[in-house]
Amino acid sequence: MPRPQEEDLFSESTMTFGEHLAELQKCLWRAVVGLMIGFAIGLYFGTTVVNWIQIPLSNALTQYYQKEAEDKLHRAAAETAGAEQLEKLDRQAKERLYERQMLAEEVYLDPAEVVKQLKTAYPQELKSLPELKSSAKPGSPDNLLRVFLWHRKADDQRVRIKSMSAQETFAIYIKASLLVGVLIASPWILYQLWLFISAGLYPNEKKMIHVYLPISVGLFFLGATIAFAFVFKPVLNFLFSYNQGMGIDPDPRISEWLSFVMILPVGFGAGFQLPLVMFFLERVGIFTAESYLRQWKLFVFAIVVIAAVLTPPDPYSMSFLAGPLVILFFGGILLCKWMPKKKSAFESLDR
């Protein structure tokens, strides 16, 4: 049965190119307004966030210098102690390093200079102390006394995060506030995105926004949470392992670390939108569930490439993103099969 000429089944969903651009402009403007409101709220929490995001980096630096001190203390004890005493000294060192959260710094002293300074500071008390003749060689640790100075972790300057300029601290505060603003405004931004997408859908499909917006927001926060909870520590340990192997002590800047903190969770959150993107592409007819399955190897390869682009150049963060995305890819296929695209109304009229 041919369709009557005057009947337009899709009249309610038909939009011109100009109308699409106008709708996009509205959605972008509303999203920017929401982001600015979130940023204004984030200014209140900026300082707290900066203190909080330093914790993973500070812990990784502490672990790095604990391992370095443990190795140095073991080598120093092995030079002078027997097997039983060496085990006792190692146990004492680990107790200070890991239980008391102290760090050891290796220094070399000239015994003659130490005696001289002590006698100068306490002339009456140490007047009977004989002076020593210095046998230290300039520029060499030979004939010097090796001493380990212990610091509380909180007082050790090597694990304190540093800024390199006066304005850097303020810029960090603004960036941290912006990060909070993005997280606060992300439901509203995703809602505007789905409003723009739904403008091109048929009336009976626009109801999907009420179902998939919560899923979209949930996936975004799930990705960001995985980045915060599981990715930072192994990534930092992996990167610092190269410092230990090459004998280069790390001295990271807070601005570089904050940029890393901002990019990784947002990248994870965006990547976790994959099932909904697949569902949308299936709805508009670009792909089908069968085509996803047929070309799954190509899609998995693309996921690995995208994960490498969205994450720093290390295997841990890439694997932490690529692994869940592969699972979500097959979840997207199940979503397309569970809610298949309905047949066109033209097909039902032609029968």
Can I get a quick summary?
By secondary structure, this protein is mostly helical. It has 11 helices and 2 strands.
Show the helix and strand layout.
Blueprint: H1 17-80, H2 83-99, E1 102-109, H3 111-121, E2 145-152, H4 168-198, H5 208-246, H6 254-271, H7 274-283, H8 289-294, H9 296-310, H10 315-338, H11 345-350
Helix pairs in contact: 1-2, 1-4, 1-5, 1-6, 4-5, 4-6, 5-6, 5-10, 7-10, 9-10
Describe this structure in words.
This protein is mainly α. The protein has a domain at 13-51 and 162-350. Helices cover 69% and strands 5% of the residues. The protein has helices at residues 17-80, 83-99, 111-121, 168-198, 208-246, 254-271, 274-283, 289-294, 296-310, 315-338, 345-350; strands at residues 102-109, 145-152. It has a two-stranded antiparallel ribbon. Helix 1 (17-80) packs across helix 4 (168-198), helix 5 packs antiparallel against helix 6 (254-271) and helix 9 packs across helix 10 (315-338). The radius of gyration is 31 Å and the shape is elongated.
